[in-house]
Amino acid sequence: MKRRDVVALCGLTIAGLPTASSTEAGETLKEAKRLDRTLVIGAGLSGLAAAQKLTAAGHDVVVLEGRDRIGGRIWTSTRWPELPLDLGASWIHGVKGNPLTSLADRIQSKRIATSYDSAIVYDVNGDPLGEDAEESLEEIREHLLERLKKAQDNDKDVSVLSVAEKLLADLDDDDPKTERYFNFVLSGNIEQEYAGSAEELSAYWYDSAKHYPGNDALFASGFHEITKHLSDGLKIETSQEVQEIHWQETPIRVVTKKQEFTADRVIVTLPLGVLKAGSVRFVPPLPEKKQKAIATLGMGVLNKCYLRFPEVFWPNNVDWLEYIAEEHGEWTEWVSFARTMGQPVLLGFNAGTRGREIEVLTDEEIVESAMQTLRILYGDDIPEPTDFQITRWASDPFARGSYSFCSLGSTPQMRRELAHPLDGKLFFAGEATNVDYYGTADGACQSGLRVADEVLRG
């Protein structure tokens, strides 16, 4: 058995999760003995899911959120009222059997399906790929994925990039097109998916997450429909930036920039990037295994640039526009909102190293960089955008990245170590603690339910 085969499935369902203000929850509160206090650090999806389940079971729960809003890395912008835009998580990835699908059904949230098969791939000169070029690209993709699969049979872990470079050298192909195709596959199929750069990603574990089948789905009114629902009836204090957690004291003391809170237990749902930054001090320090997991697991970056135009000038019958760029990872992936939302809006992505580098640019420089690519694809006479919205997740002090990935040297066991509770009173949740569905919104929500169960078991 290969090491990666030891990854175990942890099935959780959220379809029946009651809200704190529901009739069911109210009856539970009347019948149950009021238990002692639990503090939840973070009002993202995992924190809200945990708080809802515990509140419905009769626990006294208070959620502390550093931002002035709830949702965490789920952040729906309503700056364009007729088109809510998700600046963080956007999709239910794989709608069949996904617990978020059940929750969305429950609150009758309208969704719009998208498909990766609905795509056009453009070559470096801006022309759509012909049949022969598409076959060549697919051969390179198959070769690379096959070589990465073989690398997973080895005892020694290496980076995804090292596997790709070895394959490229073995092909002994001096055609610059071949290297561009390799970079496109690395960026579009791997870096954009896992938010880590190829030199950082573990060839052994990079694809160890499980996936639900089916197409992806966008929320017509934004992903915040889910977090609004889960926050219903909860006691949430925003703008409470946590600085210290004195977790071995009785009661536990949590110090924010504004005040001090005490509790019998604390659930930490801080993003991995925040834990890495050390902006929250644990007193005493966390155990060595947990510190190693925090230091070794990767925190990825996937930044978004929404461009709004006066009209649609690109094909309006596809969801994805992909570009084989001259420079690695430069505006490789685009999503069109023309078919799905009927709006002249394009969304461009930058991931990994490129995603971090672009954050130091001004908004205007980012937009101009994006427009240079679009002019290659559609001509110099295309209109200028009338507005834009841009993310910088690596610079966000409450996120320090977009979502976690399996970096070189990390293992699934490290996610278990990250999730492991301490002294029966300090608990951990968040997408990075989910062995099977890390990097996803459904993984975050499942982790919140898992930690609530841990608390309820005592």
How would you describe this protein?
The chain is α/β, with parallel strands linked by helices. The protein has 2 domains: 3-73 and 221-299 and 411-457, FAD/NAD(P)-binding domain; 116-214 and 302-395, Polyamine Oxidase, Chain A, domain 2. Helices cover 34% and strands 19% of the residues. It has 14 helices and 22 strands. The strands form 6 sheets. It has a 6-stranded mixed beta sheet.
What layout of secondary structure does this protein have?
Layout: H1 23-31, E1 37-41, H2 45-56, E2 60-64, E3 76-77, E4 85-86, E5 91-92, H3 99-106, E6 111-114, E7 119-122, H4 131-151, H5 160-171, H6 176-194, E8 216-219, H7 224-231, E9 235-237, E10 242-246, E11 252-256, E12 260-263, E13 265-268, H8 272-277, E14 281-283, H9 288-296, E15 298-300, E16 302-308, E17 320-323, E18 333-336, H10 338-341, E19 345-351, H11 352-357, H12 363-378, E20 387-390, E21 403-405, H13 412-419, E22 426-428, H14 441-457
Parallel strand pairs: 1-2, 1-13, 2-9, 7-17, 10-14, 13-22
Antiparallel strand pairs: 3-4, 5-8, 6-8, 10-11, 11-12, 15-21, 16-19, 16-20, 17-18, 18-19
Helix pairs in contact: 2-7, 2-14, 4-5, 4-6, 9-13
In short:
By secondary structure, the chain is α/β, with parallel strands linked by helices.
What are the defining features of this structure?
458 residues, alpha/beta, FAD/NAD(P)-binding domain, Polyamine Oxidase, Chain A, domain 2, five-stranded parallel β-sheet, 14 helices
Q: Measured on Cα atoms, how large is the radius of gyration?
A: 23 Å
Number of strands: 22
CATH class of the largest domain: Alpha Beta
CATH-wise, what's the superfamily of the largest domain?
FAD/NAD(P)-binding domain
- Coarse shape: globular
For this structure, the CATH topology of the largest domain is: FAD/NAD(P)-binding domain
For the termini, the CA-CA separation is 35 Å
Structural class by SSE content: alpha/beta
Tally of individual helices: 14
Q: Percent range for helical residues? A: 25-40%
For the largest sheet, list the strands in their spatial order.
7-17-18-19-16-20
Largest sheet: 6 strands, mixed
Write down the overall mean pLDDT. 92
User: Which percent band covers the strand fraction?
Assistant: 15-25%
**How many separate structural domains?**
2
Ranges where pLDDT stays below 50 over 5 or more residues in a row are 1-13, 22-34
CATH hierarchy: architecture of the largest domain = 3-Layer(bba) Sandwich
